[in-house]
Write a structure and sequence with these properties.
It is a single chain. The chain is of the alpha+beta class. The chain has one domain: Ribonuclease T2-like (Ribonuclease Rh, Chain A). Helices cover 33% and strands 18% of the residues. The chain has seven helices and nine strands, in the order αβαββααααβαβββββ. The strands form three sheets. Strands 1, 3, 5, 6 and 7 form a five-stranded antiparallel β-sheet that branches. It has a two-stranded parallel ribbon with strand order 2-9. The chain has a two-stranded antiparallel ribbon with strand order 4-8. α6 crosses α7. The relative contact order is 0.20. The chain binds 2-acetamido-2-deoxy-beta-D-glucopyranose (4 copies). The site of one 2-acetamido-2-deoxy-beta-D-glucopyranose has 4 residues, from loops. GO terms for molecular function: hydrolase activity; ribonuclease T2 activity; RNA binding. InterPro entries: Ribonuclease_T2_eukaryotic (IPR033697), RNase_T2-like (IPR001568), RNase_T2-like_sf (IPR036430), RNase_T2_His_AS_1 (IPR018188), RNase_T2_His_AS_2 (IPR033130). Keywords: Disulfide bond, Endonuclease, Hydrolase, Lyase, Nuclease, Signal. Belongs to the RNase T2 family.
Length: 248
């Protein structure tokens, strides 16, 4: 009697531990993609873009996001609806984020909606490696300042001047300048030219160290792509500057 009770307890405990193990290993990802975008390419499409109400972003790469990913190419998302974005937790980071992580979506916004989306979809999945909301945003902003992609490309003669460049030259320049081989994603301008939209680099689970990518994102670029300017008013649907705000 006594021994069968402890046996059933042992089995229950074993099953509980097995279940726990499945839950935990499912929620831990392998690495992050740190994704930056070129605003000129985001904006000169048929769909166009909107500047945030804080003003026109710099002619520089800006952050799209920091995305947990598995080595097999899939990724977790929307991991914790119980922890929605809370702006007051990143109040000390807002001015940096406005510069480095601007929203270009329409309608014009104060960027919060974009950050909120990135946190809910991707950021909550990094809670499994111990990052809270403040750490997630701080690490992402710090990563941006570690590698100056625009400078690296310009040093290799690859400039946002509207001309076409070999994707292999772009990849080589970034590998040489940063030490890491990037993933590249493209979109189309209004005349259907393929252009450089996003650059992916990989980061370890601490969200502080760049690593060689375990797997590169599927590239949708042809061998040559345009690197468009991010000039005055180019393809802007709703121009919002501090002097002429457009909140629509
Ligand atoms: C990829 O790996 C994760 C974690 O091991 C797993 O949960 C997921 O089902 C895998 N996806 C595919 C498509 O194999
Ligand atoms: C947001 O964070 C602040 C500061 O940590 C906290 O006081 C507040 O209760 C939080 N708000 C919500 C809705 O969780
Ligand atoms: C572009 O961003 C990098 C990384 O944050 C920064 O070091 C650099 O000064 C910026 N360049 C310009 C032209 O804004
Ligand atoms: C670009 O690629 C083409 C075709 O592979 C090659 O002939 C050309 O030399 C490359 N240009 C540069 C600047 O690497």
């Amino acid at each position: 009697m006594k021994s069968s009770l402890s046996l059933s307890m042992f089995i229950k405990l074993f099953l509980l531990l097995a279940l726990l193990d499945i839950c935990v290993s499912k929620s831990v990802f392998d690495f992050f993609y740190f994704v930056q975008q070129w605003p000129g390419s985001y904006c000169d499409t048929k769909r166009s873009c909107c500047y945030p109400i804080t003003g026109k972003p710099a002619s520089n790469f800006s952050i799209h996001g920091l995305w947990p990913n598995y080595n097999n190419g899939s990724w977790p998302s929307d991991c914790n609806p119980k922890h929605p974005f809370n702006q007051s937790q990143i109040s000390d980071l807002v001015s940096r984020a406005q510069t480095s992580w601007p929203s270009l979506g329409c309608p014009s916004s104060n960027n919060i909606k974009f950050w909120k989306h990135e946190w809910s979809k991707h950021g909550t999945c990094s809670e499994s490696v111990g990052l809270d909301q403040h750490a997630y945003f701080q690490h992402t902003l710090d990563l941006k300042d570690q590698i100056d992609l625009l400078q690296i490309l310009q040093d290799a003669g690859i400039k946002p001047d509207g001309s076409f460049y070999n994707v292999s030259s772009i990849e080589e320049a970034i590998e040489k300048g940063s030490g890491y081989f990037p993933g590249i994603r493209c979109n189309f301008d209004a005349s259907r030219n393929s252009q450089l939209l996003e650059i992916y680099l990989c980061v370890d689970k601490s969200a502080t160290r760049f690593i060689d990518c375990p797997i590169l994102p599927h590239s949708n670029c042809p061998s040559q792509v345009e690197f468009p300017t991010f000039g005055a008013d180019s393809g802007i649907l709703q121009l919002a500057t501090p002097s002429s705000p457009n909140y629509i």
